[in-house]
């Protein structure tokens, strides 16, 4: 590379160990889903994946702090994070697509509409509606009620929007060299993220115990928990990443012009917030 250096990472054991750990976790997951056993294998695989990730990221931080990375590596990290977030977009697009397919096509077909309305012969008494309170077929019981979007879901929406604002303030503070501002506003973002998770836990309890919304409550219950559950998992992951960023800020890491690790965490958190807006609109409101 003319006019500068090109950093080539040292030989690393983490990619192969990460692949093996992920393979063990997937085998355990498959055993649980198919045979109802294998939770120990899945737990061991998950623990191994988390361990590899922690140690791998530790090495990356050490290399960054040692000044081994240049502008080319910075571009590589940005491209990698960009593609990772794109993969997450596609992940949620699949679940949103399933929701829209059911609501736009499958239910009307079962009610006799369109070219595939012959499907109505399966359950001639079925009437399409959303939320689907009375699923067709025997042995499937729909929810008794649906959650109001204007209570806990609205509160969680305001919390996540506020967390994006506080995180932006923290990011701007870091760029301006105001580390105390960054630390305080980042801590506030963490508190908002934890509050979101707690409120969602309360919402799930209410859904299960008082509203009859479960994974077995027909297509409505399945799509509700798949979309909100995976989003909640991403909030937990995002909060963990921000906690690591907070610890690094406390240790004096990052500078105003060299802080992509922090910036990548911001990208991820803002993405999680945008997904929630979509969930609030299409899962709770409409």
Structure description:
- By secondary structure, the protein is an all-alpha fold.
- The chain has 2 domains: 1-69, Orthogonal Bundle (Helix Hairpins); 71-285, Up-down Bundle (Four Helix Bundle (Hemerythrin (Met), subunit A)), CATH 1.20.120.80.
- Helix content is 72%, strand content 0%.
- The protein has 7 helices and no strands.
- It has helices spanning 14-35, 39-65, 71-110, 152-175, 179-211, 218-250, 260-285.
- Helix 3 (71-110) packs parallel to helix 7 (260-285), helix 5 (179-211) runs antiparallel to helix 6 (218-250) and helix 6 runs antiparallel to helix 7 (260-285).
- The termini are far apart.
- The mean pLDDT is 93.
Estimate percent helicity: over 70%
CATH topology of the largest domain: Four Helix Bundle (Hemerythrin (Met), subunit A)
Strand content: under 5%
CATH superfamily of the largest domain: Cytochrome c oxidase, subunit III, four-helix bundle
| DSSP summary, beta strand count | 0
Q: Structural class of the secondary elements? A: mainly alpha
CATH class group of the largest domain: Mainly Alpha
**What is the N-to-C succession of helices and strands?**
HHHHHHH
CATH architecture label name of the largest domain:
Up-down Bundle
Q: Counting H and I runs of at least 4 residues, what is the number of helices? A: 7
The N- and C-terminal alpha carbons lie at a distance of 54 Å
Large-scale geometry: globular
- Rg value: 23 Å
Low-confidence region ranges: none
- The average pLDDT value, as a whole number, equals 93
Largest sheet: none
Instruction: Count the domains.
Output: 2
Keywords: Membrane, Translocase, Transmembrane, Transmembrane helix
Protein name: cytochrome-c oxidase
Family: Belongs to the cytochrome c oxidase subunit 3 family.
Subcellular location: Cell membrane; Membrane
